[in-house]
Specification:
With 117 residues, the chain is mostly helical. The protein contains 6 helices and no strands. The model has no long low-confidence stretch (mean pLDDT 79). This is DUF3619 family protein.
């Protein structure tokens, strides 16, 4: 909150403060005690923050910590496989490729034979 006032407002605030300060100094002892008792009663009626507020704050902090831990330790989502385009699927399932798959042992033997000599 800003305490910068217009110069006229500053003068008004200063005069009001001086008047209120003088009125407090002029109070008799009985009025001062009565005001003090009223202040104490008003403060007693104020709701107390007690243990419940601390308990709720602790529960919120623990919940956030547990959520952060779960999110940090959770396994990553599996990558989705891209769909095979129809042309590639046709190449894989063509008759020639099926014949190659049937003779796969022969092609492995041929590749091993070429590398050994």
């Amino acid at each position: 909150m800003s305490h910068e006032f217009h110069p006229d407002a500053q003068a008004f605030v200063a005069r009001a403060k001086a008047v209120l300060d003088r009125s407090v100094e002029d109070l008799d002892a009985a009025a001062a005690r009565k005001l003090q008792r009223a202040r104490v009663v008003a403060l007693e009626r104020r709701p107390k923050r007690g243990r419940r507020a601390a308990w709720i704050g602790g529960l919120a902090a623990a919940s956030l910590a547990a959520l952060a831990l779960v999110l940090w330790l959770a396994p990553p989502a599996p990558e989705r496989q891209a769909a095979v385009p129809l042309e590639d699927f046709e190449l894989i399932t063509s008759v020639e490729n099926v014949e190659l798959a049937e003779d796969l042992d022969f092609y492995h033997w041929l590749a091993d034979d070429d590398t050994t000599g």
